Amino acid sequence: MRFALWMSAWKLAGALAGALILTLGGSTMAWCQTRTAPATSVTQDRLNAAASDTIDFLHTNGNYAQTRYFPGTQIDASNVGKLRPAWIFQTEVQDVLATSPIVANGVIYVTTAFNHVYALNAKTGEEYWHYKHAMAKVTTSCCGPINRGAAVYDDKVYMATVDAKLVALDAKTGSLLWQTEIADSSRGYAETMAPTAVDGKILIGTSGGEFGIRGFVRAYDAHTGKLIWNFDTIPENSVGVWATHDATDRDMHRDIAAEKAELARTGDPYKTLGGPVWQNPAVDLKTRRIYFMVGNPSPGLDGSIRPGDNLYTESLVSLDLDSGKYVCHFQYIPHDVWDLDPASPPILVDVRDNEGKVIPGVVGAGKIGQVYVHDRKNCSLIRFSEPTVAQENMWSPPTPEGTRMLPGMFGGIASPMAVDPRLGLAYTLNIHRPTTYHVESTPYPGGKLWMGGAWKAIPGEEMSGNVRRSTTTRAKSNGRSRRHCRWSVARWRPLVDSSSRVKVTAGSGHMTQGPARSYGRSSPEPVSMRLLRHTRWMASNISLSPRVVTSIFL
After folding, report:
1. What is the pTM (predicted TM-score) of this model?
2. What mean pLDDT do residues 70-95 have?
3. Spatial strand order in the sheet of 418-420
4. Sign of torsion, CA 110 499 468 205?
């Protein structure tokens, strides 16, 4: 179980481990084509219609709205128990899988750690081709060598790499067509997210919030790899409005006077303030806008040297798809010193506003352990859920000796959630991990690990997790409209792993939890997921085996 232990500690030691692993793992590009994959062009029309596609799985999160909802109905409560393994494919890389496989025209495209890509026969598991990225020999990486998946568009497969490159591969042969440098990996930039392909553009953010980067989202030309636009997630004026309360209207216990004095002494810290974007953006094709979550500030636990609200960290942000221009944002945790970022990708669904009117909405969630519902037009907050995990001693600042506060390390909600748009229900995987927060102020180390402190598990306090389904109906509580939990299923261990995520199927309204393995039917409806009944788990919460599995009916 060494991979589970390594991933569980990534925030504390994963960056250093990742750097060491990549230093030892440097290689030249290798490519093996067993035979040509029967790939056909994935057109923009097909990507647009992915939400209703019951055959393929063309996006990391299922569709541009990122609902992680699969419309197939053939797998349901009457036959889910009959699924069995049909084939197993062993990858060359012996490490954690964090990918969502892409299924297109009977071909599965799956990525692994260290940026390998496989094209497999969805029915038999036979390998068509295998691409190995020429990883830089010396680099730093926030999260180790993981990769969250590929994108398909036209006749190409796209992958972003840990050494901050964007590569385009021939979907039929796996051969490298072009490669673009996204950022300088020696300064702490890394790529772990899956790209998003839309209208001739490849959208990508960056990891590195633990290394003093300046985050961004960029659009590259899908055919040439040339940069189209760039948006810095940290503006040159990152101070904001000196907010004293969080999104749920709780006091943040900030020392505004001390922050203003630090700003006058050292200036705006925007150049090293973090703000990574490591989950896919949602795309509203009608309004030509994208929505994404910006992560933690740098250093994560020491706010004394980064005065202000630290815009746009810990925020929902919307941009114009074609120009990359800012449209709106909403910040959940101004001046975060607990690293409780909005880890779930935003989801586009229709919601009810506070007057009961149905409007286009955005649903988000994060490590504070709450679900947020926004107006898509201006990013404003409509309501938020009851906590999905225990919240205690909020928001007590970290101290050198350690401050106990819950949620602890990892959250809350630290992985993608899912929404059933038919029922108006949100499904989340939730983590209870009691932690003390310790601060230790250190200067910017020049692209090296920069946490500004540490988290420590509390001896004797049990870790656990749960799964929740929440309604979108409104109810007034303390003057604020909230989302109420319909049911909750407890787990004895935290639902945390690079591969932990949740999806929903149309078959009997099932919620599904999809880790590194790919489960589905061999024909004609491959499904990248594992299934869960409403009242009990049908599968383990994580998968550590570096392999891809499909299932068929008995």
Report:
1. 0.87
2. 92
3. 418-420, 425-432, 464-471, 485-491
4. negative
Concatenated DSSP letters of 96-149: ------EEETTEEEEE-TTSEEEEEETTT--EEEEEE----SS---SBTB----
**For residue 134, what are its two tokens?**
């020429």
Please count the other Cβ atoms lying within 10 Å of the Cβ belonging to residue 286: 8
Q: Give, in degrees to the nearest 5, the angle at Cα 241 between 238 and 243.
A: 110
Give residue-wise pLDDT tens across range 305-357. Answer: 999 999 999 999 999 999 999 999 999 999 999 999 999 999 999 999 999 99
Read off the pLDDT of residues 296-307 as tens digits, 9 standing for 90 and up. 999 999 999 999
Token pair 């020999």 in the structure block, residue: 137
- 510: Cα within 13 Å, side-chain hemisphere: 27
* DSSP notation for 453-510: EEEEE-TTPPPEEEEEEEE---EEETTEEEE-EEEEEEESS---STT--EEEESGGG-
pLDDT in tens, 189-230: 999 999 999 999 999 999 999 999 999 999 999 999 999 999
Summarize pLDDT for 428-456 with one digit per residue, the tens. Answer: 999 999 999 999 999 999 989 999 999 99
* Contacts with 354 (C-beta within 8 Å, 6 or more apart), sequence order: 382, 383, 474, 481
Q: How far is CA 397 from CA 20, 25, 211, 228, 252, in A?
A: 32, 39, 21, 41, 8
Instruction: Please identify which of the residues 163, 170, 339, 420 carries the catalytic annotation.
Output: 339
Catalytic residue status for 339: yes
Helix (H) or strand (E) holding 449, with range, is none
Looking up tokens 């221009």, which residue turns up? Answer: 325
Two tokens, residue 89: 């494919």
